[in-house]
Each structure stands twice: as C-alpha cells, then as structure tokens.
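Data card: per-record layout.
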Amino acid sequence: MTGGYARLFSDYAGVMVLSILPVFLAVILSMKDRRAKMEALIYTKKTSAAKLTFIRYLALVIAAMLPVIILSYISNMMVWNSYHGMQLDYLAPLKYDFGWLLPSVMISTAIGMFLTELIGTPIAVAVQGLWWMFDVNLGIKTVPSAYALFRLAPRHNAGAYSWFRTQDYLEHFGNLVQNRLLMAGIALVLILLTILIYEAKRKGKFGGNAIFKKVVSSIRDRKNQSQA
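The structure for this 228-residue chain is written out next.
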C-alpha cells in the first residue's frame, strides 16, 4: 500500500507540477540578474563558472524538491492512518521523491538555465512548455503505466487501482530506471554546457543575446524583402 500510493502521488506531482514549474524558477533567476545588470559584477568574481553554476542549479533543485518531499509525506501519512498495525514502508515517499520525481526537476531546471544562458531570453519556458504539453497528450492513452525511454513524466495512474498494480510496476521497472537515468544524464550534460557558455561569456567570446538578435533581424529582413 505504501509503495502503491507513493507511485500514485509521483504520477500526479510529476505530470502536473515538477515537469514544468522548475523551468520558470530557473528562467526567473537568470532574467532577474540580467534586468538588475548583475552580469558584469558576477563575471568579475573569482568564483569559477562551474562552482557558481552548480550552486545555482543545486539551489533551484532543492527549492523545487523540498515542498514536494514535505507534501509527499503529508499525503502518505493520511493513508498510513487507515492501515494502523500493518507493516508499512515509511521511507517509500522519500524513495519515490528522489528516484521518480528528482530527474524531472533536474531536466526542467537544466533546460531553463541552459537556454536562458545560451539565448538570453525566456524561450526556455516555451520549449519546456511544448515538451510538457506533447508529453501529457501523448500519455493520455497510457496513463495506467507509461515508462517509455523519452517520457518527461512517467505515468502510473489507474485511480484507486494504482495501489494494487505492483506487478505491472515491477514488470516495467527496468524501463522506468532507464528513463529516469536518461533524464538525469541529459540534465547534467546541459549544466556542463551551461558552464562552458558562462565561461565563454566571462571571457567575452560569446554573446547569446547577440545571436538571438541576429536571427530575429535576419527573419525581419527576409519578410521586408518578400513584401518589397
């Protein structure tokens, strides 16, 4: 029962919140620095690009995960009270928080940091939003159990029957592990790329915002030429 309800909670939390919300936190943090013109000050700090990026990334991930961990225990304890005297796994919510939900937070946050640093605009919100919408709509037909390799938010939701679908979960456990490791791996790669971009900007060798402006200006020029 404890594992079944933890999986049901992970399904709702992953698809409704943690696959999309962290990207907003990452973009807001990056854009606030840009609007406050803090970049010049940050670039002159002796702190390495790797250390600064990882600290920010870790802070964003923790900020997203803490409320989830607390809420997962509150919701699970409501179920535990109904099974007083039975042998329960009191670590089940924590296991699923880190094993199931954390990779979704990692990839969403990493996309927000990477694209904002790369282009200098909040485009990460649109990119993550499109992926999230596509993933949710794709998973409508496979809500009871969907653990495909490239799923942003794995699904395990058959209503009250979710508590009793342990065998179904165990049969797809390998797919779930591969999916979660892949999302976490992609997130770490994006953070490493973010560090490289940040370091290049520090040295004046890269201007993500300039690239975006060039692309926009080229599109405008083509429109003007076609109209002429």
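Known properties of this structure: Residues 2-227 form one domain. The radius of gyration is 21 Å.

See the next section for split statistics.
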